[in-house]
Write a structure and sequence with these properties.
single chain, mainly alpha
Length: about 150
């Protein structure tokens, strides 16, 4: 397999990735605004503010990823439980990022927010695609359209 084939995306996969990015931008904005507000307005310590803000953004993220990105019509409960596992790990990672960036490196909390907004979406997309919404059927089928040879992408 060539390097070109290894990194090529189907039209359906590219559209799903773009939808993921849109939902991530919305939930990431919710995270950033909530985190900054908790720190600046409520005086919450940055590590704790990061966790609280992340929990708030999870609800926005699940609804958007399930319905808009992956267009899942699979059973809600198993997907919600897998989603919670992924984001439980992500909460720990966001706390660890805030610890390293703010406390250990002594940088401004904004750098912790930016690092979290970079790391979490990358790992989350892979896990949502391969595990959480593995039984989603609408996401690919709804985007699939015949290519120039009449074949529908998988």
């Amino acid at each position: 397999m060539s390097a070109e084939g290894l990194f090529s995306l189907s039209r359906a996969s590219l559209l799903r990735l773009l939808r993921f990015g849109l939902v991530a931008a919305v939930s990431g904005s919710v995270y950033a605004l909530a985190c900054a507000g908790l720190i600046l307005q409520a005086g919450v310590e940055p590590k704790l503010a990061s966790v609280y803000a992340y929990v708030v953004s999870i609800f926005v993220n699940f609804a958007g990823q399930r319905r808009f990105t992956f267009r899942s019509d699979a059973s809600l409960l198993p997907e919600a439980l897998r989603f919670c596992v992924v984001h439980g790990v992500n909460i720990g990672v966001s706390w660890l990022i805030a610890l390293v960036v703010v406390q250990w490196l002594g940088l401004h909390f904004v750098f912790g927010i930016l690092a979290t907004l970079l790391v979490i979406p990358l790992s989350t997309y892979v896990l949502l695609n391969l595990w959480v919404f593995q039984n989603a059927t609408k996401g690919v089928k709804a985007d699939a359209s015949p290519d120039s040879h009449g074949a529908t992408p998988k």
